[in-house]
């Protein structure tokens, strides 16, 4: 049997992915589907950490632009939204009999463990799925940057960036029929072309530490496993 291409991964999920077709909030069919895919990968012996966004509830940058909320306050609101999403995902994972821990960058001991790097690594070594919430605990940093930072800290081998499209395109494939999908990209090309894979801080951090990113379609069931097995899906940035 073919072995997984990676032993330890960070799976980056956007908050918008959890809303499904509803356009807001959490679609529990989506969380259940993700949980089943994560269980499948964990059963291969892969150590899995998950970083989740909060855009299905609130996006800090949008709240600043439309509501006039002070940026730091809006970002903290976004961090709390990631906690709600993380709790929903943990519940779905536990219903699949997957041992899980939720770790928060903001202290809230009633609902999550505090993020401590060594403890997170120990959970992974014990084959528990770790869900990181509340971003970095600081405003002005996105959950993309969180994913890159946590991946470095726990010595992950790759970031799996799960999205609504099957890779990175030269322009929006939903608007332009001539949009070209890239099979592979260099970090510097992502920055030069201003491709909206992850924010510039996250890409720069990955580039400085040679951490590959695989961008793929979350909603094609089994794609997380395909990415982990090293199959040719999506777009690889390295």
In short:
Helix content is 39%, strand content 18%. The chain is built from 9 helices and 11 strands.
Question: Could you characterize what this model shows?
Answer:
The protein has about 240 residues and is an alpha/beta fold. Helix content is about 40%, strand content about 20%. It contains 9 helices and 11 strands. The chain has a 9-stranded mixed β-sheet, sandwiched between helices. A two-stranded antiparallel ribbon has the order 7-8. α2 (about 30-40) crosses α4, α3 (about 60-65) crosses α4 and α6 runs parallel beside α8 (about 200-210). The mean pLDDT is about 95.
- Strands, total number: 11
Mean pLDDT across residues: 93
Query: What Rg is obtained from the alpha carbons, in whole angstroms?
Result: 17 Å
Please mark out the parts with pLDDT under 50 across 5 or more consecutive residues, or reply none: none
User: Distance N terminus to C terminus?
Assistant: 27 Å
Strand order of the largest sheet: 4-3-5-2-1-6-10-11-9
String of helices and strands:
EHHEHHEEHEHEEEEHHEHE
Largest sheet: 9 strands, mixed
What is the top-level CATH class?
Answer: Alpha Beta
Shape: globular
The CATH architecture classification is 3-Layer(aba) Sandwich
Structural class: alpha/beta
How many alpha or pi helices? 9
The percent of residues in helical segments reads: 25-40%
As for the number of domains, it is 1
CATH superfamily: Acetylglutamate kinase-like
- In CATH, the topology is named Carbamate kinase
Name the beta content range. Answer: 15-25%
């Amino acid at each position: 049997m073919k072995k997984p291409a990676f032993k330890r991964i960070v799976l980056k999920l956007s908050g918008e992915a959890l809303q499904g077709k509803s356009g807001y909030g959490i679609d529990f069919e989506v969380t259940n589907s993700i949980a089943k895919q994560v269980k499948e990968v964990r059963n291969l012996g892969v150590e899995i950490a998950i970083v989740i966004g909060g855009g299905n509830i609130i996006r800090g940058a949008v709240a600043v632009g439309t509501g006039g909320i002070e940026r730091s306050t809006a970002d903290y609101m976004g961090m709390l939204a990631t906690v709600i999403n993380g709790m929903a995902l943990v519940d779905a994972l536990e219903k699949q009999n997957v041992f899980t821990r939720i770790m928060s960058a903001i202290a809230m001991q009633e609902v999550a463990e505090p993020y401590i790097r060594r403890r997170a690594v120990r959970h992974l070594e014990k084959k528990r799925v770790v869900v990181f919430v509340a971003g970095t605990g600081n405003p002005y940093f996105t959950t993309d940057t969180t994913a890159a930072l946590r991946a470095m800290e726990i010595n992950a081998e790759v970031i799996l960036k799960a999205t609504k499209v099957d890779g990175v395109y030269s322009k929006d494939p939903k608007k332009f029929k001539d949009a070209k999908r890239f099979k592979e990209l260099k970090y510097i090309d992502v920055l030069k072309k201003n491709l909206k894979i992850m924010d510039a801080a996250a890409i720069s951090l990955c580039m400085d530490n040679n951490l590959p990113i695989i961008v793929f379609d979350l909603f094609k069931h089994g794609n997380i496993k395909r990415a982990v097995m090293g199959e040719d899906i999506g777009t690889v940035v390295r």
